[in-house]
Amino acid sequence: MKPIATVGENYQYPPANLAALLSPLMRLNFGEEIQQLCLEIAVSQAPSSQSAAALLGLWVMPPLVHGLSLNIKKYLLVSMPLWAKHVSDEQIQGFVENLMVAVFKPASQPCHPEMCPSALQGLSQAMKLPSPSHHLWSLLCDATGRIFDLLPNRIRRNDLELYISIAKCLSEMTDEGANQVSQITKENIEKAAFVKLYLISQGRLPLMSLTDLLTAAMQHPSKETLAWMILHSLYQARIVNHTNTGVLKRLEWLLELMGYMRNIAYQSASAQNVPPAEALDFLMLIFAAAVVAWADHEAPLLLGLSASWLPWHQENGPGGPAAALLGRSPMHRVTVQEVLTLLPTSMLLLLQKEPWKEQTQKFIDWLFSIMEIPNEAFAATSKDLLKATLLSLRVLPEFKKKAVWTRAYGW
C-alpha cells in the first residue's frame, strides 16, 4: 500500500469506491502503519473522490478519531489544509473541537504537548487556504482565539514556537479580528504582548501600535520582562524588509515616543495610574532599546539578540524555574539594563546615518527638554544618562553651535 499512497500524493486515481476498499483495512487489526497509509490515500484522493472524502469524514470525528494512534492524529492535524474543504461542516467542526483545540486543555499543562505543534501547523496552513467557506473560516478563527486563550500567560522558552505559530495564525486574520483575539488584559499581558510584538517585528502590524502596548506595559509589575521582548522585537523589525518596518517608519515612531515622554514629563499627558517617574524610567528603557537596536549590529549581537526568537528557548542554565520563562532569566535582566549603558555610544552612531542625521537637532532639543524638567518626575541617574548621551554628540555639527554646547556644559 505504501507505493499507492506515495503515488497518490501527486496523482488522482480513476474513480473507485475507495471507502469500500479502505474501510475494512481501517477497522480490522492490521496495525498502525496500514491505518495511516489508508488515511494518506483518503487525504490525497479526497479532492476528486467523494467516497474517499466520506471515509475520511468518518475517521476525523469522535468516536473513531479517539481510537487512532498518536502519530496518525498528528498526521491528520498537519494535513488538515489538504482535506478541510472536502468534508462536511459538521465533520470539520467535530475534528477541530475534539482534537485540534482539545490538545491544549488544560492551559497549565497540555494533555498532549507533543501534538500541540502539529495542531498549530495545520491550523496556520489551513488559514492560508484560498476562498474558504464562511463556516470554515469562522471555525478556524474561533479555534485560533480559543487556543490563544488556553496557552499559558507566562511563556516557557521550550514552548516558544507555539506562541510564534499562534501569532502566524492571527496574521492571517483581519486587523480587527487579530486585535480582538489578542486584546491585552491584566491576566494575559505577557502572551498578548509577545504575539503583538512578533506581528510588529514582521511588519504585519504598524510600529505605531506599539505605543498602545507600552501604555499597558507601564502598569505591569514585571516591566523588565516586557522590555526584553520589546528590545528583541525592535531589533527584528530593523532586519525584516517590510514597508511597516522601514527606516522612515522607525524614525517616525521614535519621534512619537520622544514626544510622548516629554508630555508625561511635563504632565500634559497621563501615564495611566502610574507615577510619572516610574513611567518615564520604563519609557527611557524602551527609548534606549530602540536606539541600541537600530544604531548598528555590533551592540545587539553583543547583547545576544538575533534575527529569530527561537535560539533563546534552547538555552539551559542556572536560575531556577524562572529562568525557563521568556524574559525572566538573570541574563535577560542584565541585557535589558545594558542598553542604558550603550545608549550614549549608540546615539552617536545612529545620528551619523541617514535619515536620522537630518533630525539631529530634534534629538538634541528633546534631550535638553527632558534633562531640564523642573520637577522630580525624572530620577537623577536618568538625567545623568541623558547628559552623557548629549555630550557624546559633541562631534556633530549641530552640537558645535555656541548656543548648544554652552547650554550642554552649563556655561
TrEMBL record:
Residues 1-411 form the Focadhesin C-terminal domain. GO terms for biological process: regulation of post-transcriptional gene silencing. InterPro entries: Focadhesin/RST1, Focadhesin_C. It holds the Pfam family Focadhesin. PANTHER family: FOCADHESIN, FOCADHESIN FAMILY MEMBER. This is Similar to mKIAA1797 protein (Predicted), isoform CRA_b. The gene is RGD1311849_predicted.
